[in-house]
Amino acid sequence: MDSATNLxxxxxxxxxxxxxxxxxxxxxxxxxxxxxGDFLIENAKRYPNINFIGIEKFDSVIVRAIEKVPKDxxxxxxxxxxxxxxxxxxxxxxxxxxxxxxxxxPKKRHHDRRLTSHIFLRKYDHIFKSDAxxxxxxxxxxxxxxxxxxxxxxxxxxxxISLDLHNSDRGDIIMTEYEKxxxxxxxxxxxxxxxxxxxxHKKMLK
Length: 206
Ligand SMILES: C[S@@+](CC[C@H](N)C(=O)[O-])C[C@H]1O[C@@H](n2cnc3c(N)ncnc32)[C@H](O)[C@@H]1O
What we know:
Number of helices: 7
Mean pLDDT: 94
CATH superfamily: Vaccinia Virus protein VP39
Radius of gyration: 16 Å
Number of domains: 1
Bound molecules: S-adenosylmethionine
Largest sheet: 7 strands, mixed
């Protein structure tokens, strides 16, 4: 199989049929803004019974990920798309979302573009299979604090949190490209896991 087959060209065609794309009923984990793909490639190698999908907005970046994906890594698919369209690509099939070092959009007038704004959380409601689960890592304290508030006021419970992930006892951490750079510089990595149960999830959709 050529590595380019990991790239899904018309993702909207597969809305509600992603398990068929993978040919199994394993959980599906999505990383939004995957960059060059290091995090997902390592996850897909370590966890063959989980399906991974990476979303990336820019051709120039996703090309680098496509080049790196091993030819036989069948549990990883890549999509070039803007996360704004995520609810047109997935419906009720996704088990969790990773937001790793997402763009911080520091200006207040751009906060709605943050991937943890209520605008995006509303879109995510449509894609989760049952409970909504979001993992976030960032070096940006302002984005992190914003996310804690945004997730909490939207009905998520923060189940795990660290203000210094790499000096915590969370064991073996699979790092992203940006994370490797920040850790080498000695920067703190902020980390959270947020969960919203199916009941509150359905209420939000009303
Ligand atoms: C700062 S980089 C982090 C890359 C990678 N997750 C890491 O930790 O090394 C953010 C990435 O998210 C992508 N991105 C930003 N906004 C996006 C969106 N709305 N939809 C899809 N990708 C997006 C950018 O193009 C960029 O590659």
